[in-house]
TrEMBL record:
Domain AAA+ ATPase per the UniProt entry, residue ranges: 179-369
Localization, UniProt: Mitochondrion inner membrane
Protein name: P-loop containing nucleoside triphosphate hydrolase protein
PROSITE patterns the UniProt entry points to: AAA
Family as reported in the entry's similarity comment: Belongs to the AAA ATPase family. BCS1 subfamily.
Comp. bias regions, Basic residues: 287-298, 486-499
Compositional bias ranges of the Acidic residues kind: 22-33, 256-275
Membrane topology: Single-pass membrane protein
Length: 612
């Protein structure tokens, strides 16, 4: 009895690629991690992985001999699918044994993959014709780790699950309605739009296709082709929709100017009308977290010189408005897909783009309110490795060597306590600390990414993080001297031009007189591995290392002096697969592209002081 199994190579151009329906996912076993759970390394580097060689192999399964003939088709080299066939043979007349084997393999594979999300981006081809890349398995992000007001998250989850329910699909079909659902995530950079999309894909177990309109390298045709290439059920994350030719043309220029002009007035308004400690509602569609703040902070679409006031350059508009609408809901658009569009500037979007039918729900992402601050803290420290079932020694380690022994009292009585008690006490302690943390950080001042970035410097020392808050706040021009002193600072700053400040913050004794420009810019920094020696391999990188890397990049590429003590304020970090493309196009603010070997691209926000 023989069974043939077709396997799609992850190395071939079709890999786990688009156009396959979801069931296809059952079959690819060797993704980027070899199906082994990924990331297996020893101190020398990645471990070797073994897979059966082409040809005949045999093994025993439930006391029966199974012979496998693994054949690579010629098409493997030409790129046609399928590119591999496996024939399983055993002795006997019943196919049951082979079916059992296959279903066991399927189960194992799906179990292993259930904690992963398949993420596709555009492949970095030198040609205008873009295609989806082969996709990468990424560990799924639990939706609980994206901190949002409960009602927003709950509402979104309910809506999207309802949409994916087969009954809903039939409901759409019976009424002849296009079976599609669209969401708009809007808010400042670093507030969790991308993270929530990734988490949602993991939760719903559908692949995520990420497409950014800010790359400027897409045309209407390629966009349509990319949408045609989507599978039946997936999430498409269309980022930065305000960056293409989709904004209301006549408003763009005005917006930029009015941003600058009104910034002083906005500060004034804030000062008069807003109590610094007043908690924000944190709600879905809650009133915008002070639109003025959104304007003050940079966004990706501001990440060109025009937005820093140096020159006004029209945005790249390679994808036209009608091209975008066609891709979203033209004939090429697949039934069953979920579209998530993100923007930092909802106000710049044409209402037609976000009308009901194209966008069925809008979710606002804002600066961290009190609840969010506490949640971020709890989320980060309640999951410290080994804490749940930890020994007391591990718990001590969590709080760092120099920490006063938070759990020393626990240690003394630990023998008498159950594991459960200790866990409960740990949770309660973290909850107390979270409250304290939330009390100490000004609300609606920082993005969750900033707060998380700060805490990540104290991954295993929550108490130390709390002790360091004043220092951190002082280092933040935007938050320095909250409350009374912030008021004074604002008053002081009004005496001068909003863009020019005295150089007290960054004295340069050797250069007199110094006039410095305070700038806050969004940027994408290229991390290279030669001179600087900075390598970013994945999302989970040490934030301190990233900070140093960014400093290096700025110094080399933007020419900002280190002695000016640039304040780095990392709001986002992402590794892109289309590095070559981004580098060529000149990611972010860099006109000076680094010529060295490129390993990754950092997205960030930098507030710094620059000499002019
Ligand atoms: N609400 C949040 N909850 C948890 N983590 C967050 C949240 N917001 C941001 N972060 C963290 O900050 C980093 C950047 O977030 P993310 O890329 O999702 O922001 P974004 O809103 O998509 O930014 P952009 O508009 O620049 O794409 C991520 O590593 C994420 O873990």
């Amino acid at each position: 009895m023989s069974h043939a199994v077709k396997r799609y190579s992850s190395y071939g151009p079709y890999g786990d690629g688009p156009g396959r329906n979801d069931d296809d996912d059952d079959e690819d076993v060797e993704g980027d991690d070899g199906g082994n759970g990924g990331g297996e390394e020893d101190r020398l580097g990645p471990k070797l992985k073994y897979t059966p060689a082409p040809g005949f192999l045999y093994f025993w399964y439930k006391k029966h001999l199974i012979v496998i003939n693994r054949k690579l088709d010629l098409s493997y080299y030409t790129g046609d699918i399928p590119d591999e066939t496996m024939v399983l043979t055993t002795i006997g007349r019943s196919p049951t044994l082979l079916r059992e084997l296959l279903s066991e393999a399927r189960r194992e594979y799906l179990l292993a993959q259930s904690k992963k999300t398949m993420v596709y981006t555009i492949s970095p081809t030198p040609f205008a014709q873009k295609t989806w890349d082969q996709g990468r398995h990424r560990p799924s992000r639990e939706i609980s780790t994206v901190i949002l007001p409960t009602e927003s998250k709950g509402h979104l989850l309910r809506d999207v699950k309802e949409y994916l329910n087969p009954v809903t699909a039939r409901w759409y079909a019976q009424r002849g309605l296009p079976y599609r659902r669209g969401y708009l995530f809007y808010g400042p950079p670093g507030t969790g739009k991308t993270s929530l999309s990734l988490a949602l894909a993991g939760e719903l177990k559908v692949p995520l296709y990420i497409l950014s309109l800010s790359t400027g390298s897409l045309t209407d045709e390629t966009l349509t082709m990319l949408f045609v290439g989507l599978p039946r059920k997936c999430i498409v994350l269309l980022e930065d929709i305000d960056c293409a030719g989709v904004q209301r043309n006549n408003n763009r220029h005005m917006d930029d100017e009015s941003d600058q002009e009104s910034s002083e007035e906005e500060e004034e308004e804030e000062e008069e009308g807003q109590s610094d400690n007043e908690p924000r509602s944190d709600g879905v569609k809650a009133k915008s977290p002070k639109p003025s703040k959104e304007k003050k902070r940079p966004s990706k679409s501001d990440a060109n010189p025009s937005s820093s006031g140096q020159q006004h350059r029209p945005p790249r508009m390679s994808v036209s408005f009608s091209g975008l609408l066609n891709a979203i809901d033209g004939v090429a658009s697949h039934e069953g897909r979920i579209l998530i569009m993100t923007t930092n500037h909802r106000e710049r979007l044409d209402p037609a783009l976000i009308r009901p039918g194209r966008v069925d729900m809008q979710i606002e992402f804002g600066y961290a309110g009190r609840n969010t601050l506490g949640e971020i803290f709890r989320e980060l420290y309640s999951r410290v490795d080994g804490m749940d079932s930890a020994t007391i020694e591990e718990e001590e380690e969590v709080f760092g060597g120099e920490e006063e022994s938070l759990l020393s009292s626990m240690e003394k009585t630990s023998t008498a306590r159950s594991e459960l008690d200790r866990q409960a006490q740990y949770t309660a302690t973290i909850a107390d600390l979270a409250e304290k943390f939330a009390d100490m950080i000004p609300v609606d001042k920082f993005t969750p990414a900033e707060v998380q970035g700060f805490l990540m410097s104290y991954k295993r020392a929550p108490k130390r993080a709390i002790r360091k808050i004043p220092e951190w706040l002082n280092s933040k021009p935007s938050a320095a001297g909250e409350k009374g002193s912030r008021r004074a600072k604002n008053k002081h700053s009004k005496k001068r031009s909003p863009k020019i400040i005295k150089s007290e913050e960054a004295p340069e004794p050797t250069r007199q007189p110094d006039v410095v420009t305070s700038q806050s810019i969004a940027f994408q920094g290229v991390v290279h591995n030669s001179a600087g020696g900075f390598v970013v391999n994945d999302l989970q990188v040490d934030m301190e290392m990233v900070t140093r890397a960014i400093q290096q990049i700025i110094k080399e590429n933007v020419g900002i002096s280190h002695s000016a003590s640039p304040e780095l304020n990392i709001v986002g970090l992402r590794r892109r697969t289309n590095l070559a493309e981004d580098t060529e196009k000149g990611a972010g603010v860099h006109e000076n592209k680094p010529k060295k070997e490129v390993n990754g691209i950092l997205k960030g926000e930098v507030t710094t002081v620059e000499r002019v």
